[in-house]
Amino acid sequence: MAEETKVSAVRKPKGWLLFTANFIKHPGMIGSVVPSSRFLVERMLEPIDWDTARHIVEYGPGEGIFTREILKRMRHDAELVLIELNADLAAYLKGYVTDPRVTVIHGSAADINKFAAERGWDGVDYALSGIPFSTMPEGLRREILSETRSSLNPGGKFIVFQFSNKVFSYLKEVFEAVDKGMEFRNLPPAHCYRCSTATPAEA
Ligand SMILES: C[S@@+](CC[C@H](N)C(=O)[O-])C[C@H]1O[C@@H](n2cnc3c(N)ncnc32)[C@H](O)[C@@H]1O
Questions:
Q1: Is the pTM of this model over 0.85?
Q2: 84 lines ligand 1 (CB under 6 A)
Q3: pLDDT, tens digit (0-9, with 9 covering 90-100), for 103-124
Q4: Packing angle of the helix pair 38-45, 65-73 (nearest 10 deg)
Q5: Which domains can be identified in the chain, with CATH numbers?
Q6: Cβ-based neighbours of 82, under 8 Å, separated by 6 or more
Q7: Which residue from 33, 86, 185 has its CB within 8 A of the most atoms of ligand 1, so it is best to mutate?
Q8: Which end of the chain is more exposed for a tag (fewer CB within 10 A), N or C?
């Protein structure tokens, strides 16, 4: 059952410790021993048009390394939904993310359409994800990708990083255009994908 809390200001106490402790407890769910590097954050946020983005969703925010940077850049009237499966990390985010543009949900990315509808959104402009697609069951992987595809507004983008290339073939099945790159300045180096529903000529 998904829980939700609106919270308001951003601080960063003990986030890394909590993240690493949860990797030790749930390595398949967390997928990485430390949060992402600033280089990976920059690369992931680069495709976002901050002037037009109003409905942004982040899957698996962890301790909030992307969240903090998104909040610096997003419009004052935009909304950001954080969907975090890990109960400890979701509770942590609810405790310290105090920006009124943010809603923290303890739940699964598979329910993105339900969460968007609950907020009265017409759709999602940008979905960002670092959730470990390679270690989850195939059915769940397909469900999250298909739900994300159907949630996107025209011109919307699904921006993904992964530590293996396994998800690439699944992304190509679901999205009309998938642009692929690597960020080596991260531990470990990350595969990065920008997916859209536009044809390659329009993307
Ligand atoms: C590799 S960590 C990335 C954390 C953070 N975004 C970063 O870059 O440091 C993956 C995160 O995805 C979360 N996660 C895994 N499966 C999920 C799902 N189905 N829905 C939402 N979050 C999920 C994990 O709990 C973890 O916080």
A1: yes
A2: yes
A3: 999 999 999 999 999 999 999 9
A4: 50
A5: 3-196 (3.40.50.150)
A6: 57, 58, 61, 64, 67, 93, 97, 102, 103, 104, 105
A7: 86
A8: N
